[in-house]
Specification:
The chain is an all-alpha fold and 204 residues long. It is built from nine helices and no strands.
Length: 204
């Protein structure tokens, strides 16, 4: 019970941090502002997070970690490499489209943070890269990718394209649908990777 209560309080704090970081940027945000947004006393924040750096590391680990917990099994449940890659694109874009503030924090403000924070968020990023590596390795083993393809470079291209699409969306003055980019992006990437199969393009 105590553990669940603590988890709920941490989530309340992190939700407040997302709003404040998205509005003011990481460097200009204060623990006091986060506490006000979360409806808590500033001292309460320090019972859960020692400093602002811990907050943003936990935010990244929690939200991206939860995403991977939910969607990694779904991705691996598919056998067809083309479907796997298209689903990876769809899940990634859908994840960020549900929360514009979270997208701003992940895509924009995390590019401005310290090496200490980058070290803290590296494990969950490596976990995501491993998912992509597994997809590409399996696709090549099945003869669905160009055998000469540099898989490390291919992973950078795939993740980099997703990263750029979400960053552009998060920075845009006018809102538009991220999910509407799934099919065009899939077509471009499948050709760039030399993917032989063809996943059915029906966004949803």
């Amino acid at each position: 019970m105590a553990s669940k209560a603590r988890e709920e309080k941490e989530r309340q704090i992190l939700d407040g941090a997302i709003t404040v970081f998205a509005r003011s940027g990481y460097h200009k945000s204060s623990i006091a502002a986060i506490a006000r947004e979360a409806g808590l006393a500033a001292g309460t924040i320090y019972l859960y997070f020692r400093q602002k750096e811990d907050l943003i590391i936990a935010l990244f680990q929690r939200y991206l970690g939860d995403y991977l917990d939910e969607y990694e099994p779904r991705i691996h449940a598919e056998v067809d490499p083309a479907v796997r890659i298209r689903n990876l694109i769809r899940y990634h874009l859908a994840f960020f489209e549900t929360d514009h503030d979270l997208a701003k924090v992940f895509q924009i403000h995390l590019r401005e943070v310290s090496p200490l924070i980058r070290e803290g968020i590296t494990p969950v990023l490596v976990r995501y890269f491993d998912v992509i590596d597994h997809i590409l390795q399996d696709a090549r083993a099945r003869g669905e990718l160009d055998p000469e393809l540099d898989l490390r470079l291919a992973r950078k291209v795939l993740f980099g394209a997703l990263d750029e699409i979400v960053t552009s969306w998060a920075r845009a003055e006018h809102r538009y649908s991220l999910l509407a980019q799934v099919d065009p992006l899939y077509r471009i990437l499948s050709r760039a990777l030399g993917l032989k199969g063809e996943a059915e393009c029906a966004t949803g």
